[in-house]
């Protein structure tokens, strides 16, 4: 089902978000993930351990999504000295609601060579600009495993405001890190950090300029 909001390629001078194509991007995604499986340490789905599993995850999560609430982009670094864009990760939207004019940035995967660079800032910044600026949504949410400090800090650097901890929000697959409930040792649970940027944050004087300054920073 098409996403509830229009989905298109987005770009800055140093990064491009390309609407995800199953046949083109899954092999790139698996090739990168297979050498750095720890990148998906806190993802709330079964570990992806083969190309076939990567295709199955994509189909389960996106192809067969009947809600239209999820979308995915491939992230390409454009800053390399080579002429060709370099695949750097993926980023997406989930829990999107046209009725409530909200969405959530998720599926954020930036592979090791591109961590602590401009990639995550530009990818998230592009989605914030598109969702709050172009689409005029009221709320863009960010949720993360409560133990995933880097994810929370990344969101706060971009201007997301901490709203609280949703305790025992998710039941995780058995192979994922989480908290255990006595008698249910095979199904760990997740406490989730909830942050958001809302329309009034976006329109607050200086917010957009601060975000753009972070995207413009070269070091």
TrEMBL record:
Question: What top-level branch of life does the organism fall under?
Answer: Eukaryota
The signal sequence is none
One Pfam family per UniProt: Acetyltransf_3
Stretches assigned to the N-acetyltransferase domain = 40-182
Q: Which InterPro entries match?
A: Acyl_CoA_acyltransferase, GNAT_dom, Ribosomal_N-acetyltransferase
Spans through the membrane: none
Q: Which keywords annotate this record? A: Acyltransferase, Transferase
What is the official name of this protein in its record?
Answer: Acyl-CoA N-acyltransferase
> From which source organism is this entry?
Exidia glandulosa HHB12029
């Amino acid at each position: 089902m098409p996403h509830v909001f229009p989905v298109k390629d987005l770009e800055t001078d140093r990064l491009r978000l390309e609407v995800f194509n199953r046949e083109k991007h899954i092999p790139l995604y698996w090739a990168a993930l297979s050498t750095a499986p720890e990148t998906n340490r806190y993802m709330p789905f079964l570990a992806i351990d083969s190309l076939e599993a990567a295709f199955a995850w994509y189909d389960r999560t996106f192809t067969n999504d009947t809600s239209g609430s999820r979308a995915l982009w491939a992230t390409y670094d454009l800053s390399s000295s080579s002429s060709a864009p370099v695949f750097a990760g993926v980023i997406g939207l989930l829990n999107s609601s046209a009725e409530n004019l909200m969405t959530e940035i998720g599926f954020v995967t930036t592979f090791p060579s591109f961590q602590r660079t401009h990639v995550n800032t530009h990818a998230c910044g592009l989605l914030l600009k598109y969702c709050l600026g172009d689409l005029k949504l009221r709320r863009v949410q960010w949720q993360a495993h409560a133990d995933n400090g880097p994810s929370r800090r990344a969101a706060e650097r971009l201007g997301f405001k901490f709203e609280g901890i949703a305790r025992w929000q998710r039941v995780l697959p058995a192979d994922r890190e989480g908290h255990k409930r006595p008698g249910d040792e095979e199904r760990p649970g997740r406490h989730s950090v909830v942050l958001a940027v809302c329309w009034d944050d976006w329109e607050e004087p200086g917010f957009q300029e601060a975000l753009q300054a972070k995207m413009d920073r070269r070091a």
